[in-house]
Design goal:
single chain, 341 residues, mainly beta, four-stranded antiparallel β-sheet, 1 helix, 29 strands, disordered N terminus
């Protein structure tokens, strides 16, 4: 009995030390924006941050590359043609850019690796599980969401047959608002849809098999639903959206999961913010810190989405974190460095 008590004390002490070693999240209370690129004709919805590199592609096909160490900016083209790009990915310094509309073009740097022509083709988001495997998501064709998969580092892409995907609901699609319709943690994947029906497609095996979950977010109109989704880890996820034609509306536009996307609940009901096009977890925040951006500005939550604080009226379409205090955001007319305190 004495040995059991002694062992129990050691185990409790060990667990206590382990818990206390977790990084403590410091709530965000203010924000500072520094414009890096400004151009009244600029329109950016696809932004990537990887290591010391920031890449962004515009709606006319210009690619902006920023070295965060030196602030040096290089501007190149994906293609000589003017193409509207809304999704991108940066993998091992290879930059992928995916266009909307028909024909759809997917480039790896300046090499065209996929093309699709169809009256309904419209791709919305692009993401990678690792350096070899990636996924692109678009609006439904022939009764299911359009999903492309690569297993060879983006050299080739294959479209999943509708036989291997959940059937789309009437009026279900996705929004090419911020290139954040896809969230990935390990092998797990979540894809957010919107419109008349707004759901979550889930895969636990990097896109081999799929299931679908209904959500309580506002839906029922072509302009409503989830516009952005992010996961902090395999359990904690958040999605945001609303109705972009009624950006001040705050009813049922923020939802959260704590069980890996199996179930979702509305949070901050009828509280700000209203419509947002992008949400991202703050790194090292233990799933407590969230930042959302939209045309109405920047908002932060320090309690997993339960309540929000408006930090700035500076409007953006999309945002990505470099670390837990610095992010880059882009939108209409600008690309900026955002510092959180």
């Amino acid at each position: 009995m004495k040995n059991i008590v002694f062992i129990s004390i050691i185990v409790l002490n060990f667990l206590g030390c382990k818990d206390s070693s977790k990084p403590k999240y410091t709530p965000i209370t203010s924000v500072k924006s520094q414009v890096i690129i400004k151009d009244s004709l600029l329109n950016i919805r696809a932004l990537e941050v990887d290591g010391f590199s920031v890449r962004a592609v515009s709606s006319i096909g210009d690619v902006y590359a920023i070295d965060v160490r030196t602030s040096q900016i290089n501007i190149n083209r994906v293609s000589a043609d003017t193409i509207n790009f809304r999704a991108s990915a940066l993998v091992n310094d290879n930059y992928f850019a995916l266009s909307i509309g028909s024909p759809a073009y997917l480039f790896k740097d300046t090499e065209l690796v996929y093309k699709e022509t169809h009256p309904d083709v419209f791709y919305d988001a692009l993401h990678f599980w690792n350096s070899m495997e990636g996924i692109a998501v678009g609006d439904p064709i022939d009764g299911c969401m359009s999903i492309l998969i690569t297993r060879d580092g983006g050299a080739s892409w294959n479209k999943i047959s509708c036989d291997g995907l959940p059937s789309s609901s009437e009026g279900e699609a996705a929004f090419a608002a911020s290139d954040t319709n896809i969230a990935i943690v390990g092998n797990q994947t979540w894809v957010a849809t919107g419109g008349l029906s707004s759901r979550i497609l889930r895969s636990h095996d990097k896109g081999v098999s799929w299931s679908v979950v209904d959500t309580p977010i506002i839906q029922g109109k072509e302009t409503t639903g989830i516009f952005s989704i992010d996961f902090y880890d395999s359990l904690n996820g958040f999605a945001i959206g609303g109705d972009y034609t009624n950006p001040k509306a705050q009813h049922s536009n923020k939802i959260r999961t704590v069980d890996g996307g199996i179930s979702w609940e509305v949070v901050a009901q009828d509280q700000s913010p209203g419509y947002k096009s992008c949400v991202q977890y703050i790194p090292n925040s233990n799933a407590k810190g969230l930042v959302s951006v939209g045309v109405g500005g920047i908002d932060v939550s320090n309690n997993a989405g339960e309540s929000w604080k408006h930090l700035s009226d500076d409007g953006f379409y999309t945002l990505r974190f470099l670390n837990d205090s610095i992010a880059y955001a882009a939108g209409k007319g600008k690309l900026s460095k955002i510092t959180f305190n």
